[in-house]
Structure formats: C-alpha cells, structure tokens
Design a protein that fits this description.
By secondary structure, this protein is α/β, with parallel strands linked by helices. Helices cover about 45% and strands about 15% of the residues. It is globular.
C-alpha cells in the first residue's frame, strides 16, 4: 500500500542542528514507516542520506538574513506547488507560514508555531516588526494551526480570537548506554575541566538565553568552581564580549556549539547542575532533554517553563534576577539530595508526558484527519 506523501517546509537545516530541526527529525524518525516524507532544506552533503527513508529537496541558502530565509521559503513553496505531488504539507515556524495560504490552494496544510521570534534580542527593530507581521499572517492563514507552547497558544487565542491547537514538544528518549561519554570527556579535558561543573547550553548564545544572569549570580556568590557554557558564540559579538567580561573572575570554559545530541547529553549527565536562565522560550527541547537525563535543573520561572514542570520537579528562580539565582544556587549546593529528588520527578514527568513516541500520536491523528480530505 502506498504511503501518504507529506512535505515538510519551514526548517532550513538537515541534518538537525538542534531546536526546531531536532523536533522535526525526531518526529520523522517515529513516523517514516507510516508516511512518505519529503524535507525541504538547505544544501548539505549529508542531507540525502541522513534518514534514508526521507526524501530531500535542497536549495542553496540566500544571503541577507531574514530576507534570504524569506526567499528560501518562497522557493520551497513554489517548488511544492509546481513540481510537488503531495497529500499534505506541514509548515513549521510562523515566518514560513506566510505562504501557507498559497499552499492551501492545492494541498491540506498544517502550520506550527514554535515561538514568537520577535521576543529575542537577536533581531533588530525591523526584524522584530517583520516577525510580528509574519505572526499576523500565520494567524490569518487557511492552514490548521498548532503551537508547541501552551502559554503561546493561549496568547494567540486571546489576541486573535482563533483557536490554535496545543501539541507540546517531546524528546526521543535515549539510553545512557548510547551517550557519547568518550567524546564528552575529551571535550572537557581539552578545556581543562575536571570534577564537578555547572553546565549551560544553547544552540545560539544570545541575551534572551540568559547566560549573563548565571555569570552575574556566580560572581555574587563568589563561586570558584568550573562552569561550562556550550553554544554558538558568534551570534551577537557585543553580548559575547559581555559574557567574557563577566567571566574574568570565574572559571568559565566556552566550548562552542555541540551538535551531536549524544555528546551533549553525556555532558549534561556529567554536570552537577544544569542552569536554564532563559528569559523567553517557545517550549525548550533543551529543558526536556536535560530532565530526561536526570540532572538537577535550576530554571527561570517564565510561563513557558512553569507550564512544563512543577516547583517540586525543578528549582525555579525569578526571571532576570541574578540575586535570586545566586540564592537558589547556594540552596542547591546545600541541598543536593533534595535537588536529585526533584530531578528524578522531572525525569519521570518527561517519560510519562513528553516522550516523543507519545507526542507523535497527536500528529498522526491530525495528519490522518487532513489526509481524509480530498486533494484539490
């Protein structure tokens, strides 16, 4: 029996580089035997064979930042309309969903919001205005709308008066026997890290990820132990300089972006505590992955975090408050057994509610509902 054909538009990177691309990757791994997927992506030498069952359509990236991404999404859309033969299109990200109504002329379309990008400090005023416009276009589109964040879904419904289905992120649970401890230990040794360390990681190091709050808190506490910060430091040079200045009195190692999931999880497992001081999120995969490992978490109390874990599962501090984070770090070191108990509860929550195998059932139901509609 021929499998239904589904195209994925809206993520640029294949293989995954974390974030949204990892969410898509884990979903396709779960569903590749049920559906015939085609992934639209940037040209990459490993794309075609990354998941053999998943077809790829590759285009070279355009320059000019967000404008270049816009033209990439336009090219994907035109290809799908002119040369594609699909039964369904799944569009990820609000800025790609600007083309959802065009696609809906030919196909059933599902569009998924992963965050509100204009809340990030990465973007200029013009960039933020652009993403606000894209959000309005997303909400006005003819697609069926979903969102990975409960608070953001509620915001959409309150502001625009349109229902957006909440389908949370999930993580592909990985056995610790599959973690790349050797690679993690080699990386730590390369940077002179030994013994217990605090860990912070993000795909992109930018202000809204909150690493500066962590460093300020550690300076206030007079902390002298090793701190490992993983992520791309080339996003905002001025912010990188701020972090370097805050690190002068600390033992901080900037180890760069870690793309390999199994190496990253091994580092999480090696760490004493993982600190997650983000000022805004959609629904963080990093947060779920850390909890799945069983490493204690100290988190900002933003709604996107408190909607996922209770206060008895992670230790919350007031968002953007370095002094409160200092106090919570001191508390964590003074109450290690309690922190591990919280981590165990958070790990159980992930296994019971955010296992990717459970989450994809929502997409199966949504896909099959739309596939029952006649193709235009």
């Amino acid at each position: 029996m021929q499998k239904p054909k589904i195209a994925i538009i809206g993520e640029k990177f294949w293989p995954s580089r974390g974030g949204t691309s990892r969410i898509i990757e884990d979903t396709l791994v779960q569903l590749k035997d049920r559906y015939d997927f085609t992934m639209y992506c940037y040209t990459h030498p490993e794309a075609a064979g990354h998941i053999p069952e998943v077809k790829v359509v590759q285009f070279n990236p355009y320059p000019f930042g967000a404008l270049g991404v816009f033209f990439f999404y336009l090219r994907c859309t035109l290809h799908a309309l002119r040369q594609g033969h699909f039964d369904l299109i799944h569009v990820h990200k609000t800025d790609a969903a600007v083309f959802a109504s065009m696609l809906a002329r030919k196909y059933p379309v599902i569009a998924t919001s992963h965050e509100a990008p204009y809340r990030r400090d990465k973007w200029s005023a013009i960039g933020k205005a652009y993403f606000r416009l894209m959000e309005r276009t997303f909400m006005a589109s003819k697609a069926t709308l979903t969102c990975i964040s409960r608070p953001l879904s509620e915001y959409y419904e309150q502001k625009y008066g349109r229902k957006v289905q909440y389908i949370p992120n999930g993580v592909q649970l990985t056995s610790k026997s599959d973690y790349h401890y050797e690679a993690a230990d080699s990386l730590l040794a390369k940077h002179g890290v030994s013994g217990e360390f605090l860990f912070f990681a993000a795909r992109r190091i930018m202000g809204t990820k909150g690493a500066h709050h962590l460093l300020k808190a550690l300076n206030l506490a007079g902390y002298r132990g090793p701190v490992v910060i993983a992520g791309d430091m080339d996003q905002l040079p001025a912010y990188t300089r701020l972090l370097e200045d805050l690190s002068k009195t600390l033992d901080v190692k900037f180890v760069g972006f870690i793309n390999n999931k199994e190496t990253l999880l091994a580092l999480v497992d090696r760490s004493k505590f993982f600190v997650f001081p983000s000022e805004t999120e959609g629904m963080s995969i990093m947060l779920l992955e850390v909890a799945s490992v069983g490493t204690p978490l100290i988190c900002s109390d933003i709604p996107e975090n408190t909607a996922v874990f209770d206060a008895d599962e992670v230790l919350y501090f007031r968002n953007k408050d370095a002094e409160d984070l200092r106090d919570k770090l001191v508390y964590a070191f003074d109450n290690e057994a309690e922190m591990q108990l919280r981590a165990d509860l958070a790990q159980r929550r992930v296994r019971e509610e955010y296992d990717r195998e459970l989450i994809v059932r929502h997409y199966v139901a949504l896909y099959d509902q739309h596939l029952a509609q006649p193709v235009r």
